[in-house]
Amino acid sequence: MSNWAERLRFARKSEPAHRSFLRCRKVHGEGTIGLEPNYEAGDPDLFPGLLSSAEQYLGTLGIGELKRISTEQGSDGLPLEDVTAFIQVSGSLQGGFLFSADHSLSRELARKFMIEEITDLEAAQYAVETVAEVANVITAASLNSREETGIYLGNPLMILSRDMGVRAGRYETQAYETPSGRCRFFYIPKMEKAELASIVTV
Fold first, then answer.
1. What domains does the chain contain, in order, with CATH numbers?
2. Nearest CA-CA partner of 34 in 78, 90, 76, 101
3. Cα–Cα distance, 107 to 60 (Å, whole number)
4. Would you kindly state one Gene Ontology biological process term found in this protein's UniProt entry (predicted)?
5. Quick check: 133 pLDDT over 50?
6. Phi-psi map region of 103: left, alpha, beta (phi>0 left; psi -120 to 50 alpha)
7. pLDDT tens, 164-174?
8. d(CA 66, CA 180)
9. Which residue has the higher pLDDT, 25 or 137?
10. What span, in angstroms and rounded, lies between the C-alpha atoms of 52 and 78?
């Protein structure tokens, strides 16, 4: 098959929040990630749920032996890996989830995400879109069991640089090491300001 959309392995076809990554936005430099004013504190159950969904879904794709590793914050913020997807959560819940993967893992995810075998060149071409789609599925799955109604997920904002980092007043993060590469997850709750987080050069 030559069409990307026809080659995707939709592991959660019934997921209503699952959407095409083709609408994602890409960022190569500094900027801000904003939300409408809504002074909600963070929910302590959200991040553990995200990690549980992430570990389960990555295992389903065939990314095994996920090892949790420590992550230290520098003065300029938390560093990102090579390809990062930011998913804004709005409505009855406010905040943002980030999934960040290095080139090696993002390309392996592209291979695992396809029904057919793909070349190394194709894996590199599809890596960004795959990270966006994986972030969508994980975020939606982690919110599936919530009792609240009116939870909305924004289209992925893609950050394509290892020189970028995230700076936020409040956050939770967990890094992983796998045989295929590294990744990390972030949860940034909505605080009492319009700006959720800043994308900074590190």
1. 25-201 (3.40.1550.10)
2. 90
3. 16
4. chemotaxis
5. yes
6. alpha
7. 777 777 889 99
8. 10
9. 137
10. 22
